[in-house]
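Page 47, continued from p. 46.
Same chain as before, 230 aa.
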Amino acid sequence: MFLPILLFLGTLALSFWASARVKSVYNKYAAEPSLTGMTGAQAAARVMQDAGVEGVEITSTPGHLTDHYDPLHKRLVLSEGNYRGTSVAAIAVAAHEAGHAIQHSRAYAPLHMRMAAVGATRFASQIVMWLPLIGLFTGFIHTQTAMIFMAGGWGIIMLFNLITLPVEFDASARAKVALRHSGILAAMHEEDGVNRVLNAAAWTYVAAFITSLTYFLWHLLPLLLGRRDD
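Result:
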């Protein structure tokens, strides 16, 4: 009984640490205005223009750090603060999302793999969320069967998070190179701020992968050990 609690608290602490680090670093550089006065939306447009990417709409959405790239509709969505903001953090986040648009235009394989896996991952997320409750309150599901489904669900989620790592790291790498050569960043300390924001954000994806890998192994290993005992 102690080990599952330790596992839960450990992964929860890792996720909390990664999220807190992103917020701390982001807030620090959100208070640092860019010397060029360029907004996040303008920076994203400039990065995509320099890369020859066309036909991508840049829009804003309510919320904090709700930024994302929608490949299905070729839409780059920035949170209102980053869309209109002129801070180093706003430019970093906007350039990162522009990096995803560049990936899409270049047919970057891991991005297309992640897009193809979205449906299966959503289904797997429902399994790992509801199956333990169904088993607990109904008792209709045999323990061995539940373990197989849970291992399969966490395995899908783990693979999705694994694919996400190169997608996010590559988008940040493209953003850093683009900002360095575009003249959007006017000083070395701004480039350092961009690096810190994007590197902090990367830890959230690493934490998600470690968490899903841990739960996958937690459900898989008893099945493998049981088969060996047989």
